[in-house]
Amino acid sequence: MTVTADAHGPASGERTPPTALGYVPALDGIRAVAVLMVIGSHIGLLRALPDGWKLRGGFIGVDIFFVLSGFLITTLLLEERQKRGSVRVGTFYRRRAMRLLPALVGFLAMHVVFITLVLGHPIAIERRWIPSALLFATNWSAIAAQPPIAIGHLWSLAVEEQFYLVWPFVMILVGTRARPRYVVAGLVATIAVIGIHRWLLWEATSVARVVLGTDTHADGLMFGALLAHVRAWRPTARLPRPALLIAAALLGATAALVKPGAAFLFRGGYTLVGAAAAVVIASAVGGDRLATGALARRPLLAIGRVSYGLYLWHPLVFWWVFVELHTRSDTVRFFAGVVATAVATSASWYLVERPFLRWKSRLESVLPS
Fold first, then answer.
1. Which end of the chain is less enclosed by CB atoms within 10 A, N or C?
2. Rounded distance, CA 127 to CA 120, Å?
3. Per-residue buried b or exposed e for 158-171, using 16+ beta carbons within 10 Å of the residue's own CB
4. Angle at the Cα of 20 (from 14 to 23), degrees rounded to 5?
């Protein structure tokens, strides 16, 4: 399905054609930092370290992922529209499915094995949660009922995919017909509305509803979309170094000190985290030497490349290791968890994700434009 943009486009002089983003190594570094934050917050599943070793606010790694994902996907759509004059919605959905579903299906298959054969739980548990995961509705299901430990983290994947179910059409219907400054203003207003909505709903309902709801947690994705549009509108703009330092300090302090459910998060904290993540991403894309020097390190690049599989698998691996080795020492469990997670992530990347990515590339080269 191809939807053609407004033939007249924006008014003359309003938009500078965006510079193709290409591969920015520092963005893989950001992925790595984000996923390591999340793992640090889940390390308690191994029950192998003192409570003080858990990264209290590491869950904000998910919000960093949201901002980065919103930026990258919106940038790709803007570049496609600039190049072709249209957005291929069907192609967009096919790419997303081929990137996400193969590894997800493999993960869910192993989850069934663990729940039924290792734990001996009835298959009925899986019959409820597997369809929800495959349909990217885990966040709403988790609001209604407590999910299994190794399924709950899929809520973030669900929020992303629900957002992208409608985002290409929003860009087509609004972004191609409005002046860039109006699009930017609209995105800023949307972020503000989500933040206010989250604050008000937090005072009236459960924390789970506010954290997991797409309507209350999509502002990170919107921050990414905002950054992509600002870059397309003002491609030469650069942020001052102090903005990067303040943003990095805010993210670090939040990850280290803020507990899940803290009032700060719902009274503007999530909004600040999204804004700070956008600043770090903008600095990395803009070539700030401090950002690129810190984030484009080989270990971080390697972790960032496999971050999807690492995020997907680590809760199940941690839980499985604890069940199998709960009588062993904390040290044994910890190192077993690290090694087993690395093995599962590598298997996901080399046996599932990378082959499908290559197939996707070949498919794109032979399908009609």
1. C
2. 15
3. bbbbbbbeebbeeb
4. 145
Asked if 277 contacts 249 with a C-beta cutoff of 8 angstroms, the reply is: no
DSSP 49-87: S-GGGS-TTTTHHHHHHHHHHHHHHHHHHHHHHHHHSEE
Give a yes or no: residue 256 inside a domain.
yes
- Boundaries of domain holding 105: 19-355
Q: Residue 368 class from Cβ within 10 Å (0-12 exposed, 13-18 middle, 19+ buried)? A: exposed
Structure tokens, 265: 């998060």
The CA distance from 222 to 195, in Å, is: 11
Q: Check: CB of residue 198 under 8 Å from CB of residue 216.
A: yes
The full length of the chain comes to 369
Half-sphere exposure of 240 (CA within 13 A, CB side): 3
- State pTM to two decimals: 0.92
Q: Determine, yes or no, domain membership for 368.
A: no
For 335, other C-beta atoms within 10 Å of its C-beta total 14
Cα–Cα nearest to 134, from 167, 94, 161: 161
Full pLDDT tens readout for the chain, 369 residues? 444 333 333 333 344 445 688 899 999 999 999 999 999 999 999 988 887 788 999 999 999 999 999 999 999 999 888 887 777 888 899 999 999 999 999 999 999 999 999 999 888 878 889 999 999 999 999 999 999 989 999 999 999 999 999 999 988 887 566 788 899 999 999 999 999 999 999 999 999 999 999 999 999 999 999 999 999 888 888 899 999 999 999 999 999 999 999 999 999 999 999 999 999 999 999 999 999 999 999 999 999 999 999 999 999 999 999 999 999 999 999 999 999 999 999 999 999 999 998 887 777 766 655
Residue 365 lies in a domain: no
Contacts of 183 (CB under 8 A, 6+ apart): 174, 175, 229
Q: What are the residues facing 68 on neighbouring strands?
A: none
**Rounded CA gap, 309 and 33, in Å?**
15
Residue 313 amino acid letter: W
Residue 363 domain-assigned (yes or no): no
Any idea which residue has 């995919």 for tokens? 161
Count how many domains the chain has.
Answer: 1
